Amino acid sequence: MSVLITEKIPVQNFEIVKNNLEVILFKELDNQVKKQCTDLDIQVFTERQEPYDKGEDVVVNVSLNNIPYSGIDEKNTTGNLSFNIDIYARGFTTLDNDGNKFSRSKLELVTGWIRYILSSTKYSTLGFQKGIIGGTYVDSIQFDDNYGNQDGAYVRMARLQFSVRVIENQSMFDGIELLGNDTIIRLCDGSKGYKLTFNN
């Protein structure tokens, strides 16, 4: 059997949206660090599998969770992309700071920045032309009380869930023009009902 999809399948919109989302967070978080004169070292990853290490300061990991589809027809599908944005932060106890509170305040600060960035109307289309993005929503933020105490480093994490409605397209099949009925089979009305016979 020969292949039926002869066209080159384009990169899907959910891939493009994910790649653009991580770039937005990378640029905007870096800008906030500079604007607010903080010494935070924020690293942004995509689909990271390695666990957080206490040698890192703040880690943001963007991963695509699931995509329920609706409004499905032959040409278009609406996908509701669900992203998990995980934020990790650590703090050490010093003479001036309690490590537990320090990690928590650092985590809340960066999580708040991300919520603000993704809720801003300036990013309602995530930088794409109108018509591709049907809406963006910060659904929830969940904080983990204690991700783990790693050799004196108080590590905490938060998960921000972010949804994006996006249109996916596929090319229509041109079909084959029906020129006539050239079948070699006919339908005959017999005593026991309609019966298929060869057209002699």
CATH architecture: 2-Layer Sandwich
Radius of gyration: 27 Å
Mean pLDDT: 83
Classify the secondary structure makeup into a structural class: alpha+beta
How many structural domains in the coordinates?
A: 1
Quaternary structure state of the chains depicted: single chain
Could you say what the CATH topology is called?
Answer: Alpha-Beta Plaits
Q: Uncertain segments of ≥5 residues (pLDDT<50)?
A: none
| Helical fraction | 10-25%
Q: How many individual β-strands?
A: 8
Shape: elongated
Tell me the β content. 35-45%
Major sheet: 6 strands, mixed
**What's the helix-strand series?**
HEEEEHEEEE
Keywords:
six-stranded mixed beta sheet, two-stranded antiparallel ribbon, 200 residues
Can you tell me about this structure?
The chain is α+β, with helices and mostly antiparallel strands and 200 residues long. It has a single domain, classed as Alpha-Beta Plaits (2-Layer Sandwich). The protein has helices at residues 13-35, 99-119, and strands at 42-46, 58-66, 69-70, 76-92, 133-150, 153-169, 185-190, 193-198. The strands form two sheets. Strands 1, 2, 3, 4, 5 and 6 form a six-stranded mixed sheet that branches. The chain starts with 12 loop residues before the first helix and ends with a strand. The mean pLDDT is 83.
Question: Topology of this structure?
Answer:
Elements: H1 13-35, E1 42-46, E2 58-66, E3 69-70, E4 76-92, H2 99-119, E5 133-150, E6 153-169, E7 185-190, E8 193-198
Parallel strand pairs: 1-2
Antiparallel strand pairs: 2-4, 3-4, 4-6, 5-6, 7-8
Helix pairs in contact: 1-2
